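Hi, here's the filled form for the chain we discussed.

Project: internal
Contact: R.S.
Residues: 302
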Amino acid sequence: MTEQPQIHAGAGAGRPVSAPSAGLGSAATEAVPLPGEPSGPGQAVPPGERRRERRRPPDWLLRTLAGVALLALWELAARALGSDFVARPTAVAQAVPEVFATEKFWQDAWATIWSVIEGVVIGAVAGTLLGLAMGRIRLVRWFFTSYVSALYTLPMVAVVPLMTIWLGYTSETRLVAVALSAFLPIVVTTADGSRSIPKEYLDVARTFRAKVHNIWFGIALRNAIPYLIAGLQLAIARALVTAVAVEFLAGVPGLGYSILMQTRSFQQNEAFVGVVLLTVFVVGTRALLTLARRRFLPWYGR
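And the returned structure, exactly as it came back:
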């Protein structure tokens, strides 16, 4: 028979009992790892992998190098074609100071950009209200969903000639077309955001007998803000395309009409300066919206 360890009282009391040194008793004294803890000793990362992680270039540098590579390919392709009517990056860069020095260029650019800003603001206000109503009221959603979907898929360029008949060849035609282009994506995204409220929020609001306007603007609107920002990013791009299309088709003064006239007179490099400016405007505005979302809504997207 095996001897059982004995604990003696007195001077030896309180001392830890030594575990058996061999046999089955040694397995019983091994520490059992908790869930989520590594079962063995931690493994050190090899120095070579650490160096590779540290030497990885930043994202902005990679994007810059990719852009430079695309411009270089464009320049080489234009020179290979040997045509004087193909815009080159170097020629566009040389035309920038001359174009920026003309007052008419900035007048046309301001007319186009300001119409986009006005149209997006009008479309955002109207689209947010209708989107909240579609998200919270079933009858409104049932009535407007089909019409909003049909208008959203409709090319706005096809409606511009009709608008010129109704409103004339004026800047009001451009404003209405831009506002409608910005209105549709904001309605869709805001309606989705106001419908995706967690059920617990609404249960708590009803428990405390919250009023309708508190639920709409205190819960539904706040929950739809990330969706609204995404709709604004879509709306700005659609609005700018619509503004330039109206200037092309209706001859409304603006940067789009200026680009059209320059291309018809074979001033392709000067025309490309306007294209670059419009692109920078859209990209910069979308970047500001993304920065605002990350700054004021850090919880979204996690």
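Let me know if anything looks off before we file it.
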